Structure formats: structure tokens, C-alpha cells
Amino acid sequence: MTDPVTEDREQGQTFMPKFDAAGLLTAVAVDSADGSVLMLAHMDAEALAKTQETGFAHFHSRSRGRLWMKGESSGHVLQVQAILVDCDQDAIVLQCVPAGPACHTLAPSCFYRRLEGGKLIRI
């Protein structure tokens, strides 16, 4: 038998994000127009709240150890249209309208290479 908290988290309507030991959720940003994967990042409670409050994707930078808004210096923001939550609430998908390239390399997506025969091939 499933405990009531797990039942509510997996089947209910209560938003109960399940952060990992470091206090993070995995967040995948996709283009709301075509579903293509734009980037993968992590969110802490502050980033999640700021994203919901502003409608723009915010993340927790593990390398900088702080909150950052995607595009805060480049202007290539991600306007969030919807937030999808996975079954056990430890990962989310942000359906976004990108204002420019999502990747810091200026590629449209951070996933611009395919692994083929041990080598990375630009898509």
C-alpha cells in the first residue's frame, strides 16, 4: 500500500516539489512551438519561485552558487508558457518561448551535437 504523501505527490493536485539532497530539481527547457530541447539546468526553491513569479526561467547556477535568470546578460531569455511536473515531482519541463539562442555558444539549443562512432557531430 502506498503512503498518503506518496499517493498525493504522484496522483494528487498538490504541488510538492521533491528536491534532491543538494536542494535541486532537474529542469528541462523545451521550445513551446516545436518541443525541441533547449537546455537542461537545475532549480532550487528560490529559482522555482522566481520563475513562477516572473514568467521567465530562473535557475540555480551550481558553478556560481547563486540564482540566475537565463539571458540576464545576453538578453536571450526564456519566457515560460507552462511548467510540466513529472510523476514524482523531482523534475520539471519548462515549455518556453526563447528570445534568441538558448546556448551560451549561440547555438539554438545546448544539444547541438550528436554522438556518433565515439565522435561528436554537429547537428
From TrEMBL:
Catalytic class of the enzyme: hydrolase
EC number: 3.5.4.19
Annotated TM spans: none
Domain Phosphoribosyl-AMP cyclohydrolase, residue spans: 39-112
Catalytically driven reaction(s): 1-(5-phospho-beta-D-ribosyl)-5'-AMP + H2O = 1-(5-phospho-beta-D-ribosyl)-5-[(5-phospho-beta-D-ribosylamino)methylideneamino]imidazole-4-carboxamide
UniProt keywords, alphabetically: Amino-acid biosynthesis, Histidine biosynthesis, Hydrolase
InterPro entries tied to this protein: PRib_AMP_CycHydrolase_dom, PRib_AMP_CycHydrolase_sf
An example Gene Ontology molecular-function term: phosphoribosyl-AMP cyclohydrolase activity
Pathway the protein acts in: Amino-acid biosynthesis; L-histidine biosynthesis; L-histidine from 5-phospho-alpha-D-ribose 1-diphosphate: step 3/9
Hydrolase recorded as keyword: yes
Database matches in Pfam families: PRA-CH
Protein name, as recorded: phosphoribosyl-AMP cyclohydrolase
Organism per entry: Novosphingobium aquae
